[in-house]
Amino acid sequence: MCTLEKRRNLFILTLTGDNKYEHRLNPALISSIRSALAEARSQAVAGSVLITVAQGRFFSNGFDLRYAQSVGAKSGSIQASLDEVIRMVNLFKGVVSDFLTLPMPTVAAVGGHAAAAGLMLAMSHDYITMTSSRSVMYMSELDIGMTLPDYFTALIRAKIGSASARRNLMLRAAKVKADEAVKMGIVDSAHASPEEAVEAAMRLCDDLTKKKWNGKVYAEIRKASYPELCGLLGLKDEEILPSKL
């Protein structure tokens, strides 16, 4: 699951578990993340910022396909497993929407592998730091024989400007290490250890919280930066004007 800790204007969202946990995105974890983000949203003030970290050697290993298989096994239907995958794809839209509309800057400290929907979770943040010691970013859909949801491809197009980088990620299923992820524009900085990646993310959070930006304005400008993605998610723009001129 996950926890949310508040330290003054800093919210720390932690995907919890020991080294056996892959933080696979099943309905329970998706709901837990959304609840934590709703709590952060309700307490947000000017200058708030959120960092996401994960315990263990995975940031997130994507959708919980074993869970989907168990649903099918209980009903004796392969179709039930496929339907559960589709349900998780639709539920996860809410997580991406929540990050896009969250009224504060967001930073992901990727200290372990981020695969498929787990990579989309990281890329839903405004900034990413990553360790070079034990993690890769990997879109596994080509290898497992699954097409990408439309909002996944829109998120990738929105965040990765290079066509060759997108090709390597999606059409070669490349396992991208931190230094290469920086060159591809996925990651902002690479660090020798998971601890250093978190420390760098914390320093970035410190810099961002000093700005004291209006969170609603920040969220609207973020949304306006990704019109295709927001269109697929059904997010509408809201015009905000300064209260004092």
Automatic annotation (TrEMBL):
Pfam families linked: ECH_1 (PF00378)
MF (Gene Ontology): delta(3)-delta(2)-enoyl-CoA isomerase activity
EC number: 5.3.3.8
Biochemical pathway: Lipid metabolism; fatty acid beta-oxidation
GO cellular component, one term: peroxisome
Keywords for the protein's UniProt record, in alphabetical order: Isomerase, Lipid metabolism
Catalytic reactions of this protein: a (3E)-enoyl-CoA = a 4-saturated (2E)-enoyl-CoA; a (3Z)-enoyl-CoA = a 4-saturated (2E)-enoyl-CoA
EC top class named in words: isomerase
A biological process term (GO) from this entry: fatty acid beta-oxidation
InterPro entries per the UniProt record, alphabetical: ClpP/crotonase-like_dom_sf, Enoyl-CoA_hydra/iso
Entry similarity comment: Belongs to the enoyl-CoA hydratase/isomerase family.
Record-linked PANTHER family: ENOYL-COA HYDRATASE-RELATED, ENOYL-COA HYDRATASE_ISOMERASE FAMILY PROTEIN
Protein name as it appears in the record: Delta(3)-Delta(2)-enoyl-CoA isomerase
Lineage per the UniProt record: Eukaryota, Viridiplantae, Streptophyta, Embryophyta, Tracheophyta
